[in-house]
Amino acid sequence: MSHQPEPPRRGLIARARLAWRGLGPAGPLLLVATGGPVVGLLALVAAAGAWLPWFETAGVAEGAAFVALGVGLAAGCMLPTHATSLLAGYVFGAAWGCAMGFGVVMLAAALGYAVFSRLVGGRVLDAIASSERARRVHAALLGQGFGRTVWLVALLRLSPLMPFAATNVLMASLGVRPAAFLCATSIGIAPRSIGVALVGAQLSELDWQAGGSVWSSVLAVAATLAVLWWVGRAARRALRQEVGDGGEAT
């Protein structure tokens, strides 16, 4: 009985190229969403002397302009939400600063998710569906009900593992339901957004390095470890199930 030779295994570079093609528009978007906010923050800091006087009166018009600019820049991967929350507290005070900083983040998340969902389409989900292993890992992570999806995405929001804009791209690409995405964002982003706005409200001069604290660092590290543990555990369980089913099929 003749045996057909096994097809040669792809090398690491070939597999990486194949994975990159499978991402479609999501790949470049993730790169932009990761690096864009850093570049935008540097430009914002460098030009602070030119635009900061616009918000000296902190009136209704200035508030509306701040929200519109903050939402557009954060959703467009041009500004980190840490900066918008800090600036909201510094310009508008503790109460309004917390509300506006949190509102900017939530509106930016909703807008970014809607735009990225249209740009990416079903390309990533199609690539996942073409691989039984990827499909099972995806189901283990995001296919276990509304509550577990909210918990996982909220941990991602709490953790610095993924930047804000990159998380928007990733969740839209993976087909997370909008309700779960927004609910998890509100839970995961509130502590950091409100905390940074409160720090900004206490500043006499704008300090872009402000906003960090021991407790926020501890929370971020704990969330990162929880995400890594959960993702690893779900992936291992899905792969064990695949191996078990393969053994039964043979």
Describe this structure as you would to a colleague:
The protein is mainly alpha-helical. The protein contains eleven helices and no strands. The chain has helices spanning 12-23, 26-46, 48-51, 60-75, 81-120, 123-129, 132-142, 146-158, 164-173, 178-201, 214-249. Helix 8 (146-158) runs parallel beside helix 10 (178-201). The longest helix is centred in the middle third of the chain and has 40 residues, at 81-120. The radius of gyration is 21 Å and the shape is elongated. Residues 246-250 have low confidence and may be disordered.
What are the secondary-structure elements, in order, as H or E? HHHHHHHHHHH
- In this structure, how is the largest beta sheet organized? none
Radius of gyration over C-alpha positions, nearest whole angstrom = 21 Å
What is the rounded distance between the termini? 18 Å
What portion of residues belong to β-strands?
A: under 5%
Helical coverage, percent range: over 70%
Low-confidence stretches: 246-250
Number of separate strands:
0
Oligomer: single chain
Task: Enumerate how many helices there are, as a single number.
Answer: 11
What form results from the Cα inertia axes? elongated
Structure classification: mainly alpha
Mean model confidence by pLDDT: 80
